[in-house]
Amino acid sequence: MADSSSIDVQVETHRRGAVRTRVTRMSTGARADRAFVLIAGIGVAATYFEFLAPLLAERGEVFALDLPGFGGVPASGEQPTAAFFADQVESVLDHYDLVDPVLLGHSMGTQVVTEVLARRPDLSHAVLVSPVVDEAEANALVQAVRFVQSTVRESLHIALLAVSAYLLCGVLYFFEALPHMLRYRISDRVGAGHARLLLLRGEFDRPSPRRLHSRLVARARSARRWEIEGAAHCVVNSHAVGVARLVFRHIDDDLGPKGRMPAAEAAVPPATHADISMVLGAVASRLAEWISAARKDENGVERAKARHARVLWRAYRPKG
After folding, report:
1. Count of alpha carbons within 13 Å of 23, Cβ hemisphere only?
2. pTM to 2 decimals?
3. Which helix (H) or strand (E) holds 258?
């Protein structure tokens, strides 16, 4: 997936007082222009970035976060607002001494990124993938319908990722976080940041409609908007190749203000080096991660995450 012959993966738990955030660090030893910080959506975690993270590692170290309450990380007892999650992201930025990293949020993660950008005018580039919520449809029932409409366009692989993540999150915490997500007015906050934004959506992304992207572009200080054909809400996983290419062009300021990328250029291709042992290894490591998280075995989660990343690297790295 990247040009380097090996990948280094470290999984650590960062603590801010009693609050925990799990950080998966990934580096290929290739050119290190910028660091990338990845924040997933409600109920899910860094597993959604399993294909995107190694691609971004071509250009710098990647920090994929499991926020409190998600991915088996214990909830903190504090209100799960965008501002609370932004506090945890800022703590990670400070702990690792990250200078002008590229923040990338998906779904509810875009709200968290928006809050961080409002606090840190020194950040120059950020990516909002499938931002939510459209203010005209900030209703739990409507959002459930929109999510189902998008889900029918997703693969079985993504459906299984989502279901396993929601089980770890738990129904109670999910529904505690949901009202905060619905109340957050991303259109009102997006202009508070100074970073140049790239807004991305899939063609069939019903929770993140084009009209919301139009509103965000109009209110942001500087924003581009692109769409990937054939993709739905989980474009960061199913079409990770296209997302990575657009991110690189965005931070190089080599991307037009608006455009569409064909699905054939964006979708994750078949594994270059995969065989049955690698397939079984990927399944086994993901299952081990889930079981360890359910058992609150943090060491087991860390080992399984690192193993899964290395298995995917061996399967997808370029030939030669």
Report:
1. 22
2. 0.93
3. strand 258-261
